[in-house]
Write a structure and sequence with these properties.
This protein has helices spanning 15-46, 59-88, 216-228; strands spanning 95-102, 105-110, 116-120, 142-145, 149-156, 161-165, 170-174, 180-185, 190-196, 209-214. It is an alpha+beta fold. The chain has 2 domains: 15-48 and 56-88; 95-228, Cupredoxins -  blue copper proteins (Immunoglobulin-like, Sandwich), CATH 2.60.40.420. It has a 5-stranded mixed beta sheet with strand order 3-2-1-5-8, with no helix packed on it. Strands 4-10-9-6-7 form a 5-stranded mixed beta sheet, with helices on one face. The chain starts with 14 loop residues before the first helix and ends with a helix. Bound molecules: dinuclear copper ion.
Length: 229
């Protein structure tokens, strides 16, 4: 999760988020190079007084400074498209989780396990335990097996919500009447926090998401207890 003064991306917990971070760094590097070059040129132009009285046109330089930026943009567009299709790829998921956005809480369904379902509300600040995270912890966490492909289906019951978990590189809109799909692979155990990221009404800030990533045998125990209760 994000902690104090963490202004960058969170540590990745999935291969897709790792790729997203690589792409972010790549794009940022190009951005820095362009900023430095343009900054240098601007400073040099401001602080000299040379005038070329005979300069009316320059076909060659115009060609160069039109085509060069286009090529630089290709270097961003190609990896960007690769990532876009990579994020959309479904790779034989082991289980499916359905999350439904409501005003203002999430509900979840494990369709593979006897349609087990539950609601997940934020824990209000006055009911929070000492080790809880304010505005981020929920009463019923999603438990998922690590090292497994997981498909998630996202929809909403009232207005548009967005199921967003930064550490996993997942951000899918839940839209009434539509069923959106994505998948991810959690490569370590732990708690992963997320929040709704579509402005969905008064309590938009108070419908967080918590994933508890556990080894597969722990998950099987949890799900069988849950289904049998
Ligand atoms: Cu749900 Cu914002």
């Amino acid at each position: 999760m994000s902690t104090w003064a963490n202004l960058g991306l969170q540590d990745s917990a999935s291969p897709l988020m790792e790729q997203l971070i690589f792409f972010h760094v790549h794009a940022l590097l190009i951005l820095v190079m362009i900023t430095v070059l343009v900054g240098y040129l601007m400073v040099m132009l401001f602080f000299n007084s040379y005038v070329n009285r005979f300069l009316l046109h320059g076909q060659l330089i115009e060609m160069i400074w039109t085509i060069l930026p286009a090529i630089i943009l290709l270097f961003i567009a190609m990896p960007s498209l690769r990532l876009l299709y990579l994020l959309d790829e479904i790779n034989e998921p082991s289980i499916t989780l359905k999350s439904i956005g409501h005003q203002w809480y999430w509900s979840y369904e494990y369709s593979d396990f006897n349609d087990m379902e539950f609601d997940s509300y934020m824990i209000p600040t006055n009911e929070l335990s000492n080790d809880g995270f304010r505005l981020l912890d929920v009463d019923n966490r999603i438990v998922l097996p690590m090292n497994s492909q997981i498909r998630i289906l996202v929809t909403a019951a009232d207005v548009i919500h967005s199921w967003t978990i930064p550490a996993l590189g997942v951000k899918v809109d839940g839209t009434p009447g539509r069923l959106n799909q994505t998948n991810f692979f959690i490569n370590r155990p732990g708690l992963f926090y997320g929040q709704c990221s579509e402005i969905c009404g008064a309590n938009h800030s108070f419908m967080p998401i918590v994933i508890e990533s556990v080894p597969v045998n722990y998950f099987i125990k949890w799900i069988s207890d849950k289904v049998n209760s």
